[in-house]
């Protein structure tokens, strides 16, 4: 089913089930939010490729329908909002640019190519690796308890992992665009393996430099360069 919704162009990737705090200061986006709050509080969030020429190519093909769950006016006359992602969509065409962007979209389904005990094992492995990844990034204390409790639903788990990964936006966008859940989880397994290895190597060298610093009574800068 196709429909038209206002488009909020952002420089991040929002996954279904995740929350996104934003501060709106652009006048076009303010007008969008004002109409959105009067209406159904639904907006299409889509990654905006700022570096490209301003045409249709600057809009990614896949975004997330989001609901405004909180909004307030700041002292600087900006709008602080919190969005919650709900469903993925594909942008068919941009039908309006003023007073704000509006796109014609279609809702994207999610498919499992195969459900098996191996898939459940993969999900359990991913959950364990994600906790290790969070530990290495030292962000556990910044997450709410509810965010630390991983979902058992495989699709929701895949989106939660995607939202927590600190990887380039293009890579996150590719995860959002992945329609098959099995493929999504396997791709996230590859990324977690890569990022955990990178973080472990970084932690090792930080500890190595720290030991040299203490042993030689040097500053961290001189320990690195000597």
Overview of the molecule:
This protein is an alpha+beta fold. The chain has two domains: 2-107, Roll (Archaeosine Trna-guanine Transglycosylase, Chain: A, domain 4); 117-216, Up-down Bundle (Methane Monooxygenase Hydroxylase, Chain G, domain 1). 44% of the residues lie in helices and 25% in strands. The protein has seven helices and six strands; from the N terminus they run ββαββββαααααα. It has a five-stranded mixed barrel. A hairpin with a 5-residue loop joins strand 4 (62-73) and strand 5. The longest helix has 36 residues, at 181-216.
- SSE string, helices as H and strands as E: EEHEEEEHHHHHH
CATH architecture of the largest domain: Roll
- CATH fold type of the largest domain: Archaeosine Trna-guanine Transglycosylase, Chain: A, domain 4
Say how many strands there are: 6
Number of distinct helices:
7
Name the beta content range: 25-35%
Chain-averaged pLDDT: 83
- Rg of Cα set: 21 Å
Keywords:
226 residues; alpha+beta; Archaeosine Trna-guanine Transglycosylase, Chain: A, domain 4; 5-stranded mixed beta barrel; 7 helices; 44% helix; globular
Question: SSE layout and pairings?
Answer:
Blueprint: E1 2-10, E2 19-24, H1 27-38, E3 42-47, E4 62-73, E5 79-96, E6 102-107, H2 117-137, H3 145-148, H4 154-164, H5 169-177, H6 181-216, H7 220-225
Parallel strand pairs: 1-3
Antiparallel strand pairs: 1-6, 2-5, 3-4, 4-5, 5-6
Helix pairs in contact: 2-4, 2-6, 4-6
Describe the structure concisely for a colleague:
With 226 residues, this protein is an alpha+beta fold. Helices cover 44% and strands 25% of the residues.
